[in-house]
Amino acid sequence: MDVANLASQLNAGLILPEGIVIITLLLVLVVDLIQGRKANRVTPYIGIGGLLASLGAIAFQWDNPVSNAFLGSFSSDPLSLVFRAIIVLSAMVTIMISIRYVEQSGTSLGEFITILLTASVGGMVLSGANELVTIFVALETLSISSYLLTGYMKRDPRSNEAALKYLLIGASSSALFLYGVSLLYGLSGGQTELVAIATNLAASDQSLGLVIALVFVIAGVAFKISAVPFHQWTPDVYEGSPTPVVAFLSVGSKAAGFALATRMLITVFPLLTDEWHFVFTALAILSMVLGNIVALAQTSMKRLLAYSSIGQAGFVMIGLIAATEVGYASMLFYLFIYLFMNLGGFACIILFSLRTGTDQISEYAGLYQKDPLITLGLSLCLLSLGGIPPLAGFFGKLYLFWAGWQAGLYTLVLVGLFTSVISIYYYIRVVKMMVVKEPQEMSEVVKNYPKVTWDLPGLKSLQVALVLTVVATTLIGILSNPVFTLATDSVNNTPFLKLDLARTGTQPVAVLPEAIAPANPL
Amino acid sequence: MQLQYFLLLAAALFCIGVYGLVTSRNAVRVLMSIELMLNAVNLNLMAFSNYLDPAMIKGQIFAVFVITVAAAEAAVGLAILLAIYRNRDTVDMEQFNLLKW
Amino acid sequence: MEAIYEYAWLIPVFPLLGAALVGIGLISFNQATNRLRQANAVLILTLMGAAAVFSFALLSSQIQGHEPFVRTFEWAAAGDFRLTMGYTVDHLTTLMLAVVTTVAILVMIYTDGYMAHEKSYARFYAYLSLFSASMLGLVISPNLVQVYIFWELVGMCSYLLIGFWYDRKGAADACQKAFVTNRVGDFGLLLGMLGLYWATGSFEFDIMGERLETLVSSGSLSAGLAVLFAILVFLGPVAKSAQFPLHVWLPDAMEGPTPISALIHAATMVAAGVFLVARMFPVFEQLPTVMNVIAWTGGVTAFLGATIAITQNDIKKGLAYSTMSQLGYMVMAMGVGAYTAGLFHLMTHAYFKAMLFLGSGSVIHGMEEVVGHDPTLAQDMRLMGNLRKYMPITAITFLIGTLAICGIPPFAGFWSKDEILSLTFQANPILWLIGYITAGMTAFYMFRMYFMTFEGEFRGKDAEIKGVLKAEAAGVYAFGPGAMHAQELGTHQDHDDHHHADTPHESPLTMTFPLMALAVPSMLIGLLGMPWANRFEAFIHAPGEIIEEAHGAFDWGEFLIAGGSSVGIGLLGITLASLMYARKSINPAAIAKKIEPLYWLSRNKWYLDDINYKVFVQGSRRIARQVLEVDSKVVDGIVNLTGFVTLVTGEGLKYFENGRAQFYALIVFGAVLGLVVVFGVT
């Protein structure tokens, strides 16, 4: 195999979106080095521009029939494109809402953006990675950058503590994941590509080792999507970290986790489909119940959203477990709208904490009179998260529950319905706090609310991000169908999902393992 | 020598790592325990590579990546620990509970 | 021709745009917008006019035999779950569009005069426009979900408008009552809708009907269940069209400004119930039980409304009960399968009842100049009389409306009512008898109303009657569920002192013009539906029904008997009314004395409000009090307990989050171990 031939087989063009982000982050780093403090006015926009370009590259690849690159290590199928788009978008919005926050804290903005972009590259590669080493390296790129971001406010002991906790739990889960991966390598007789592993595993007989590998891999994935009981870092880290970082973790990092879960579990473990569906069902129920119930008892807005994101992850898992075309599509759809509603919520919280310096829910009392924009934005986003029609969240949940019901996951859907009622309670509590209170019930902070201005550097982009996300949350609700069609298309055009759907056919999921295992040579 | 022995050693090492991670009060020891777990994985990979995949030796390459990433992780971990030590004057895990409930 | 169909969705959008523009103006530049006053009205009227032109273009196109047009797009779809939205233009739609837009325009013109001195003039127009948009949206909806959405929207506008004078206690109470009553119906509708969807997998009217038929005939869906769903759906129209027993809100809704009563609570929104029954006809048609329920509900309502209307002294309340009674006719017609006749009556009624209401508004407007802005005085017919002399146009148009509703040929009401009655006779003679007696009573109470208001002597300055009325108002209202007390009413009396005039005078042209305009269809529109040349039936008929071209063999004898008898009973009622209220040769009070229990039965609305109050309000209060002990410990307990347990669980579980990273790691390892063990064991 000569070099030219090899190079043509690599299809390196498929990682163009990642390449653009890498170039952008290098550019940001260099500009920051050269210009110093002055660079703060330029670097965020370089970052946003780069991400936009990357988004363009992703859109450009949509109809690309070649989906395998680097000899099968990386696949740029429509599913990975959707996940990469979600990650890029979340990084973009995060930069927009972080400029003012980081400047106000007195830390370097250029470095922040560099690390954030590195994390996005990790997430993006993870979405398409098809080989164990690539998966591991991408996962760690995302994780380590996230640890750094979490501890970015290095003079704040809470931020330090959050970073340490995140690092410890993160490292132990990646160690678990890695152990599972090493077992996979062994059990498959020395393969690292997911498809090859699956083929070799099917040839060998099912053993306890495979189950252990599965559980260990799930532990690593569940940590990323913060599913109960692998969730406990979430509230602490969310509370301690800088808020823009939390915004990214809750959307970008979580989407990458779901990408990994979808690709790896479906490709590698077709033999153990029932086992992993069982585990995920348990995780989903626990996440929905615990996330939503504990959220009731929270007093800090960031912790509230942390538990809410745990509950939301539970809802999204329904789509994954449904394992039907509609199921996967509704999972993508929900993650996509979750991007807007959650980031919109965080934009409002950041704006509020920039103006008042607090995150306590009780301090939001009576905000309506002082700052209608935050109130409106936050209310819409929270109501959407709670699934109130006609906002996007309602349709997201409708699709998920519908897909679950069709697939026969009655328990899951009922638990989902019940817990979303609970969730509405705590979301509405915040809205009520802001809107209904009489002037005399206003919190002290709101009474001394500063005059609303948008003149400070970085506030404009925050405002733009806020308005855009809130508009998207509302509009996608009314016009959900095109987006959902897009999600369905991406599921239909993704080879490994197509294979999986063909394999399971129209069979309901709850079939005994014996019924499937011998019948499937794959 | 058989493959099982290596695997058993790796599993034992992993468990020791887990034990150390859960029980150590000194944060540096906790980080070292994590290294232990990752090295157990390396052991696994090397063993598999040697016995099952001597031609392509993918496991060995994987191990190199793991070592590299582990180094990065340790560096970041120590950096965070340093920052926390500056702020709190302690590396005692029991003391790090500002964030709870 | 296609172009107007392509853009038919603009019809509801035009008024919506008007409402939005004025609404935004009111929110952002309140004072400036309010100062513009008539500019707002002109804007909204122009847009409404555009919608009307559009509607008539569609109507004429449909009359010329254009194919019905449906345009849908998928609003939400997942797997085999499809939710489509869109619009449909067919015969029924265009008819309703034409009726709604004409009435809406005339009411809007009228409003300018009626609300001239109101400070919330612009807000009122915005609401009116919003209502029109929702109503037009309802009419063009192609499926049940969309109908339901607009159904709720028109309901919401109706509450907004009933409670327009929210500082009046009566208005606030009425608004609440309308809301609660309609919730009952809407909940039924929602349940029925979901049930039908569960059974048939569709929200489209005709598909629903077809599939339901197959399901029931193949036995895969029990007929009982199908009937239950259909009746649940019918609960929606029962509430919205003020059918017994959910009719109680409609008379109270007259607390709203009179243009609202004319537009919403006479011509359009209340007819939405009948419209929905018409749309759901493919479903109802196959279930004879449901059809019977519908017919009897309509019949009972028609009779009940008429009996109560006989003794009402408040002109608007009288008209409200008359509306209820006429809606009963329409529903009854639907129930006996007289699809065309029901909708024909809907159309004629919309015109003449809107005119009657606007006429009553004109009367009230005139009276207010004499007795002041107190609804108990300005709306009471005992204070009126001889207004024909002062308000000739109002009087003549009112008389036309009265003749129309009484079923005197050739006015509109005759043709539609006669058709309903003759078709009912074929289906169910008992119902026909009820309808027939009701027709007599209708003639009686409408002419009673006319004579009391426009003939005799003007009693507006009679202090004695005023005193009686005030005392009575205090007494009567104390009964009512609104629990309006004399003291509360007293607050209005402060305004009474500045009487402008001793005699009422004719209303301004903006108010009389709509009256005159509406008089034309009230007189003539019935001619469309002459039984021997029924152009209306050729245009509107039940889906699937084939109109036989057998008009040549029209049975004059039958028509003359049926028509003659209904005219006869109408004339009988009129004569009685004129003897009692115009000639005074029979003293109504004496008759009332003789049949006192009946008189009071009617006067107090069959005590339905009181029964409602006693049984549902007081009864539930008493029961509540009695079981308070149990309640607080069991029912409340369980409800609170669930919430409490959830909260406590939340509080408790959050302490698992003890802040120690190593504990978290332990849980992670524990969970992994646990999962491995679970799989290892199984």
Tell me what you see in this structure:
- The complex is a heterotrimer of chains A (522), B (101) and C (682).
- With 522 residues, chain A is mainly α.
- Chain A has a domain at 275-522.
- Chain A has helices spanning 3-10, 16-35, 43-60, 78-105, 109-128, 132-150, 157-187, 194-203, 208-224, 233-240, 243-268, 273-295, 301-322, 325-356, 367-370, 372-386, 392-406, 410-435, 444-447, 459-478, 480-492, 495-504, 513-516; strands at 68-69, 74-75.
- In chain A, a hairpin with a 4-residue loop joins strand 1 (68-69) and strand 2.
- The relative contact order of chain A is 0.10.
- Chain B is mainly α and 101 residues long.
- Chain B is 77% helix and 0% strand.
- The longest helix of chain B has 31 residues, at 58-88.
- The radius of gyration of chain B is 17 Å and the shape is elongated.
- In chain C, helix 4 runs parallel beside helix 6 and helix 21 packs antiparallel against helix 22 (429-454).
- Chain C has a two-stranded antiparallel ribbon.
- At the A-B interface, helix 6, helix 7 and helix 10 of A face helix 1, helix 2 and helix 3 of B.
Helix and strand topology:
The complex is a heterotrimer of chains A (522), B (101) and C (682).
Chain A: H1 3-10, H2 16-35, H3 43-60, E1 68-69, E2 74-75, H4 78-105, H5 109-128, H6 132-150, H7 157-187, H8 194-203, H9 208-224, H10 233-240, H11 243-268, H12 273-295, H13 301-322, H14 325-356, H15 367-370, H16 372-386, H17 392-406, H18 410-435, H19 444-447, H20 459-478, H21 480-492, H22 495-504, H23 513-516
Antiparallel strand pairs in A: 1-2
Helix pairs in contact in A: 2-3, 2-5, 3-4, 4-5, 4-11, 4-14, 4-20, 4-21, 5-6, 5-11, 6-7, 6-11, 7-9, 7-10, 9-11, 9-12, 10-13, 11-13, 11-14, 12-13, 12-18, 13-14, 13-17, 13-18, 14-16, 14-17, 14-20, 14-21, 16-18, 16-20, 17-18, 17-20
Chain B: H1 3-23, H2 27-52, H3 58-88
Helix pairs in contact in B: 1-2, 2-3
Chain C: H1 2-6, H2 10-28, H3 30-36, H4 38-63, E1 69-78, E2 81-89, H5 91-114, H6 121-139, H7 144-162, H8 169-200, H9 205-218, H10 223-240, H11 249-252, H12 258-267, H13 269-279, H14 281-284, H15 288-309, H16 315-335, H17 339-371, H18 375-378, H19 387-390, H20 392-406, H21 412-427, H22 429-454, H23 463-479, H24 486-490, H25 509-524, H26 535-539, H27 556-582, H28 588-594, H29 596-603, H30 608-626, H31 628-633, H32 635-653, H33 661-681
Antiparallel strand pairs in C: 1-2
Helix pairs in contact in C: 2-3, 2-4, 2-6, 4-5, 4-6, 5-6, 5-12, 5-17, 5-25, 6-7, 7-8, 8-9, 8-10, 10-13, 10-15, 12-17, 13-16, 13-17, 15-16, 15-22, 16-17, 16-21, 16-22, 17-20, 17-21, 17-25, 20-22, 20-25, 21-22, 21-27, 22-27, 28-29
